[in-house]
Amino acid sequence: MHTSLAECYNDNKQAETVGNGKSMDTGFSRDVLRGLTAKEKSLSPKYFYDDEGSALFDRICRLDEYYPYQAELKLLPVVALELAKILTEDYTVVEFGAGSLLKIKPLLENVKGIRQFIPIDISGNHLREACAQLSIEFPAIEIQPVEADFCQFVDLGQTMGKPLGFFPGSTIGNFSPSEAMQFLANAKKTVGSGGYMLVGVDTKKSPVTLHRAYNDNAGVTAQFNLNMLTRINRELGANFNLEAFEHYAYYDTDAGCIKMHLVSLADQRYQLLGKEIVFNKGESVHTESSYKYRPEDFSAMADRAGWQVEQLWLAENEMFSTFLLRA
Question: Could you tell me the pTM of the whole model?
Fold first, then answer.
């Protein structure tokens, strides 16, 4: 993984000023500078999700090629109906990396014991807009958005029910297997002993299907990847030429993951925060990994992180899986 999970937990909100007078988050500037001056360049995928990046990801989820979203969306109503029979107490749902909040709706509609919803996302404006709409649809549920890095330990304080973690999509695949296990261990601390966690996990499948999902014909995933450079230009005063980079994603069968990069199309030099950033033609910046798991492999990982698998649901043709874990 191109960023350590320990770094993901850094929540430094202090600001500093760059040459153009703009205020910026020191965590972002530090991570970008460190990643682009490393021997093997990388950028953390958590920085994809500014407002524009979040909007682009919503577009990706509507693409025919992007099977994880469609497969999980069909599976979740089935999961929710069965959860309603399993979870009979009062619950506070904590969604890690909440995004547009579409996937929580089947749970809120069917699990009658949900009294409170705490979505956590790094993109605050996007989150607040989604929460405002959700509050209209579910007025009886207390919705309490938290703008933060979802990797952090969250002190939930006094909740209105037993915590139920919710981590849909294939986001857990963005961590390496060891980091994913560490995330699960920290999520266990958040929900506490006896709490639950509902986790979406992408499955291993045909490399052709995987390639199409991350290289869509409309080029939306490419825009999403390149938007990272747009954000660096805007927030850190850089001047990266987006036309001099291209999106590249492929499935590494040995590692069992998609690897996504930005590739330099020419020899290039840029100034960033007083440092020279040099790109050779063909050199890449690793922006994301997306690991895929067989159900038995993920079950073993969850067990090592202190969770017990209570239930497993598989989408049609085993295109996606959802696990209910108990701490």
Answer: 0.84
